[in-house]
Amino acid sequence: xxxxxxxxxxxxxxxxxxxxxxxxxxxxxxxxxxxxxxxxxxxxxxxxxxxxxxxxxxxxxxxxxxxxxxxxxxxxxxxxxxxxxxxxxxxxxxxxxxxxxxxxxxxxxxxxxxxxxxxxxxxxxxxxxxxxxxxxxxxxxxxxxxxxxxxxxxxxxxxxxxxxxxxxxxxxxxxxxxxxxxxxxxxxxxxxxxxxxxxxxxxxxxxxxxxxxxxxxxxxxxxxxxxxxxxxxxxxxxxxxxxxxxxxxxxxxxxxxxx
Length: 259
Prior knowledge:
- InterPro entries: AAA_dom (IPR025669), DNA_Partitioning_ATPase (IPR050678), P-loop_NTPase (IPR027417).
- This is Chromosome partitioning protein ParA.
- It comes from Anaeromyxobacter diazotrophicus.
- The protein is 42% helix and 17% strand.
- The protein has helices at 16-29, 44-47, 60-65, 94-98, 107-113, 132-140, 154-171, 190-202, 216-220, 228-231, 236-258; strands at residues 3-7, 34-38, 75-76, 82-85, 121-125, 143-149, 177-186, 207-213.
- The longest helix is centred in the C-terminal third of the chain and has 23 residues, at 236-258.
């Protein structure tokens, strides 16, 4: 059974796409067949893998609105075990177009269901909002990974995400779980450590042990169209995501046995 995981946080600039891209690449490096689905109209997950949003012909938009099979949208990447279902500029208006569509919150779930068995992991990168595209990501998933920046207002943003997940569980996807909270952009200072301690105190089981540091090489890699794994494998950022992937696999294996 594949594990379908949505990477979500309604707050921008928390390392959401960075986590989606580099976690997917790290899973692929471990020879886990992985599909990354980009439902963010900005298309940054694709550009971080060398596939520019404006050069895409068939995209997630066509899968959501026109019923094009997701298999026809998928592109290969530089990594043998990593495929991408890219976004396109047309996704900008998708939420308005989906508003009047029957079963609008299940469009992505239906598209993913037809292709999921070909992969061990399906990761969905959502926009930094709690609109219809993110709702589609949450309804399609079995689990959610929440990237959380180590800053003062982190807990407030986390509360909003958790409320949304609870609503989705009640109304559309009762099996949805929080697979984990990953602390990102961790600076080596007292404030970041205090925030980490506070979050771990409140969410001891959910928070991954791995912490993603602030890392220049990690910030540079998207501009070269490469995940950090192919840009600087020795960097702290890369090693952190490889370690996070190991944790994700262990948790997914546990959840699979418990199911």
